[in-house]
Amino acid sequence: MKKTLLLTILVSGLWFLVSSSAYANNLTIDNVEIVSKDKANKTSTIQFDISWENSWRGSRNYDAVWVFVKYKLNSDGKWYHANLKTAGTNPSGFDRGTGTEIDIIVPSDKVGAFIQRSNTGAGTTSVTDVELVWDWDAGGLDADAVIDEIKVFGIEMTYIPSGNFYVGDTQADYGQFEAGITGAVFQITSEGALTLGGGGAGSLGNNNATGMATADDFNDSTSTNLPSTFPKGYDAFYCMKYEISQGQYRDFLNTLTRDQQNKRTFTDVSTDAITNIYVMANNSSMEYRNGIKCPATGNGTTEPITFGCDYNEASTFDESTDGEWIACNYLSWMDGCAYADWAGLRPMTELEFEKVCRGPETSLADECAWGTTDVTQAEGDVQSPGEKYETAMTTGNGLANYDGAGTDILGPLRIGFAAASATNRVS
Asked: Which residue, among 135, 51, 133, 50, has the nearest Cα to 94 in the 3D structure?
């Protein structure tokens, strides 16, 4: 992500005018600025432009962008999350801007907003002058607080509607989902509590697997309760459209303290001089297509490091061929959880994952996530490597980048690399 500071002027405390551009898979957020301030209500209005390609809204589901705001305080130089003022659809004081007609959906926790098409359609969504209302009082700020910088981040999402769905695919695999001990698929019909294991009628089994969790093991003879509060996928929810990209993880790292950065990279980045500058692989040169990098010297020991993407190894961060749209590998479970928490999200549950892949369709034995048994391995030379539109040379149904036989790519590809304007779920 390239960021350009357009104007830095303190106006009655608590606001600077800043521009910040954010890229995911052809998602851009730019021309960010604070355009007004309401001392009486302790709020400020944040305005920005947003666009993304291949947007759609159909009769059942649609895509969206999860938008959230971070600000950096002058007093301590740290980044904080900005809460929004009002929950609901197109809340009072928020502005849907000009361009593609959109809705702004602010959930009850008010840590961000979903921006999505209002009407059925497909193509590029492009809107200028969208406005969100920032509740700076909720962050404990007063009217004289000095904000050094403010950024708006976006993550492309997909809306998954409520409804029944099946888990399991009738394959006798260890740990598979099944209805009791029958081997048949299990249907989720509500968000109500479930009995896991035990072999009883109506229970969700796992083909006698053990070791699922120390305190809550379940198998064909031992049961436990999955409470109604656990997300089962029946209710509607949003999920990320793509994997976390290297550019997104870089942006995450660049809003952390030095100590936090050191916990979220493989390389020890606590010293001024750093040898293994490709910090996710803990290596002095790029490995397995992960280009997230820090400077070799001049890092100090207390201030945060500014990371960049350097896939082309030209030592200039965030060039057009530096791979910021490549999926981010080397992430641990806790790295993923930390990123989700930073973004105001949570990890997907296993049941939700099956809902996302299968939708309301019945199960197919030995199916892949796109609903068929087709798999085509992406291999050979990468086309336009490191660029915004990089893709595989290979084509075919079930195109996937995995470690199979042949000429492997030996690393992740761009998020969404297999999709084009004419492709469907399988192709």
From this structure: 133
3-state secondary structure 273-327: CCCCCECCCCECCCECCECEECCCCCCCCCCCCCCEECCCCCCCCCCCCCCCCEE
Q: pLDDT, tens digit, for every residue of 45-58?
A: 999 999 999 899 99
Cβ(25)–Cβ(414) below 8 Å: yes
Angle between helices 333-343 and 246-253 (to 10 degrees): 70
pTM over 0.70: yes
Please give the Cα distance from 50 to 30 (Å, whole number).
Answer: 7
Residues sharing a CB contact under 8 Å with residue 213, sequence separation 6 or more, in sequence order: none
How long, in residues, is the chain? 427
Backbone angles phi, psi at 376, to 5 degrees: -120, 120
Q: Which two tokens stand for residue 401?
A: 């980048």
d(CA 370, CA 368): 5
Q: Could you tell me the two tokens for 228?
A: 């109604």
Q: pLDDT at residue 62 above 70?
A: yes
Residue 218 CA to residue 209 CA, distance in Å, equals 7
Structural element, H or E, at residue 337: helix 333-343
243 — phi, psi (to 5°)?
-65, 165
State the first-to-last Cα distance of the chain, in angstroms, to the nearest integer: 30
